[in-house]
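cron nightly-structures :: item 1 of 1
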Amino acid sequence: MKPLLLVVENDSGTRRLLEIFLRRECFDPDAVATGNEALLLVDRVDYSAVVLDLLIPGRTGRDVLADIAARRPALLERIVVISSATEAHLRDVRGRYPAVAVLRKPFDLSELLTSVQERVARHAGPKPSDLMHTFVRRSVVCGAKAGLVIRHHGDTLELVCEFGYAPGMLDTFFPLSPDAAYPICAAVRHARAVWMSALNGDAEAEYPQLAPVWRENGTSALAAIPVLAGERAAGVFGWSFSEPRAFDAAEQAQFMAIADEARSLVKTSTSASSRRA
C-alpha cells in the first residue's frame, strides 16, 4: 500500500505538478485547493504526510496549522509547509511549530521529496480506511464541500452518515419523506440522478424550500445519485458545492463512480436495519 499524502495548494498548475511528481515517486496523493477541504480530510484520513501551502483561500495554511495544533498536535510532525511568504513569516511558523518542515518557494523538488520521505518514515503506517473515509476522500478531492449518505427505509429517508455540515444541522431534516420538495427526494422518487449546476429560476420554483437552506449554508450547486435495488432506490448519495458546477459528462462520471464505490454504505445500513427489526 502506497503512503497516502495530502497536498494543499491553491495554484492549479503547482498543485497538478506536485500531484504528478509525488505519484511518480510512489506516493498516493490527494490534492485540494483550500484550507476547508484540508481540514475535512485530515479529520478523517490518516495521512502519512501533508504538503501545505500557507497562502490558500478561505481558512489559510496558518488556520489549518492552528486547528491541527489544537486538536491533533501529533500530526504536526508530518507536515511540510511550502510558501512564497517572506522569510520573517516563515521564521514565525518555524518558531510556533518546530515540528513542521518549512520550504520557501521556489524550492527544488528533490528538497521537497526529502522532507516528505522523512515525515513518512516517522509514520507508523496508515490505519486501514473504512468505506466512509474513502467516500469523504473521493468527494472532497472532486470538489464537494459536504456530502451525505441516505437510505430509503419504509416510507422515510434516513441519514446514514455525512461530512462537512455544521453539528446538528441535519437533525431537523431527518427522517425525511421521499415526497418532500428536495432534490435528494426527487432522486429517490424517480430513481435517477439529479444535477443542479446552480439554483436558477426553474430550480427554485421546483424546490421552494431549498433556497433559504442554500443561502444559509453557502451552497451553489448540488448532485444527488440514487442507489438502485431493481427499479427502486434503496438510498441516495448527495453532495453540495460552494461554487456553481458545469456537471459535464466527465464530472458526472466522477460522482457516479464515487457512489458506485460506496454503495455498500447504503446496503450495509439497510441490512443492519433489517436485522434489528
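cron nightly-structures :: done
The longest helix spans residues 109-122.
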